[in-house]
Amino acid sequence: MENRFHNSLTNPDEFTITFELVPGQGSSGKQVDRILEFARLASKDGRIKALSITDNAGGHPAMAPVAIGSEVQALGIEPLIHFSLKDKNRNQVESHLFLYHRLRFHALLIMGGDFPRPRYYGQAKPVFDLDSMQTLQLMRDMESGEYSCHAGRRTTDFAPISFFRGCVVSPFKTTEPEQVWQYGKLLRKIRAGADFIVTQLGFDIRKFEELILFLRENNISQPVLANVFIPSLGVARLMARGGVPGVLLPPALVQRMEEEADDPKARLVRAAKMLCVLQGLGYHGVHIGGNGLHFDDVRYILDQADAMQDKWQSFREEVHFPVPFTWYLYDEKKRPVRLSPGRRPGSLALHQAMHHYLFSSQTISGRTFARICRRLGRCHRGYTILRAVEWMIKTVVFDCRMCGDCTLAESTFLCPQSGCPKKLVNGPCGGSRDTFCEVQPEKRCFWVRVYDRLPPETTAASLGTGPILPPRTGAWIRAVRGITISPAPTTTGLPEARTGKKRGTRGNRVRRSVSDLSAG
């Protein structure tokens, strides 16, 4: 099948339309019939270039997107598969990539995913073995058919595979730390190999424009789709209460929808006007979604937008619904504002000094420590002793989990394995709300705490360095690069019984969602 979605989105003269399908539970029934009927009509109409298919949206189990994707593809329209990482370890990620390539799925939207909801006899175990940046990097490496299997070894056992790789960003955060991190993560995703961008859903036109300004300022040429979500009144009320992770719906929009309750076309007309404004702002296309929509509704939206496009500037204020007290990266004159990271540095200076004295080749203590590590690393017993000492120190000071993915130096000496429920090492997910965690709403987001310890000169561009790839080795051994470990230990950490620590996340709390773009 011709990849019409790729061809449309990369054509600067074409405005690309996609629509989001949300499979439910079960493998058949009226919901599946409605989805396939929508796909059949969309293929016949021709204006929708891809149908995106969610992957366990909101953390709820649903039919796997590969099933609907195959049937949508057979109907003659391109599937855009959501590739959520919350349920997959790194082996499963590779396995699914081979599967999707075999099925000739061209486009994948890579995201971390909403935290899994409790289901069969309790809480589903989250995975998050790789984050979206690491997965994008893996996919780019797989294009050559050659990538690192582990240190010092490469594999070339398969023919190169490639996808049109998408990523997600939320320009709708209301606080500085959350928003700056979103843009920093976006830069990491681009560097890791993202080919296109889809925004989180939102209703603040100034925020939509802010993303376009940021992309231009950083010379990012990847096409971007704006999310035009069309909620029913009930869903709008749920979102306004904070019922969907990472989504902020202003009370003013709920009030407007309550006033329009007797007019079923009002939300469709507003969506058409919003589509016109976003095209006028410079977006390459829109990603339409919403509950209770039939294809006739979407066709009406597209017809109205075609007829009104020349008037887009007059619609801007009409469809602009900002959240009160929102922070913006650019002022009203479109000038970058001054950032204020590092307001709560805590004991950062002390940790940095200790790290410098132990792990810098410029200090006598650092070179001495490297020699000690080199000697201990020559045998399994010495390696075990080194790891035990590392565990005793880091557990007390940093609440360390001895995961082998240590990024303390990169996260201001706060441990993401114990501090972030999703254990993300390349920045936050999109599920936070007003600086508080999606999973544990009583706690501040781990990456907001990191931002408050960063140097005052930090910018979104400096946060975009990366991505950090998962090393799976001892942190001290990795810090003194160049030592040889022989024989190679087979363990990545101390046994559970020895550490006395129970791994996992306490008090997991999740919220219901209607889309999985919040997880970025």
TrEMBL record:
UniProt keyword annotations, A-Z: FAD, Flavoprotein, Oxidoreductase
Span list, region Disordered: 488-520
One CC-aspect GO term: cytosol
Reaction equations catalysed: (6S)-5-methyl-5,6,7,8-tetrahydrofolate + NAD(+) = (6R)-5,10-methylene-5,6,7,8-tetrahydrofolate + NADH + H(+)
Protein name: Methylenetetrahydrofolate reductase
InterPro entries: DUF5981 (IPR022026), FAD-linked_oxidoreductase-like (IPR029041), Mehydrof_redctse-like (IPR003171)
GO molecular function: FAD binding; methylenetetrahydrofolate reductase (NADH) activity
Superkingdom of the organism of origin: Bacteria
Similarity comment: family membership: Belongs to the methylenetetrahydrofolate reductase family.
Gene Ontology biological-process annotations: methionine biosynthetic process; tetrahydrofolate interconversion
Compositional bias per record (Basic residues), positions renumbered to this chain: 500-512
Cofactor field: FAD
Pfam families: DUF5981, MTHFR
Classification lineage: Bacteria, Pseudomonadati, Thermodesulfobacteriota, Desulfobulbia, Desulfobulbales
Source organism of the structure: Desulfolithobacter dissulfuricans
Pathway annotation from the record: Amino-acid biosynthesis; L-methionine biosynthesis via de novo pathway; One-carbon metabolism; tetrahydrofolate interconversion
Methylene-tetrahydrofolate reductase C-terminal-like domain span: 388-456
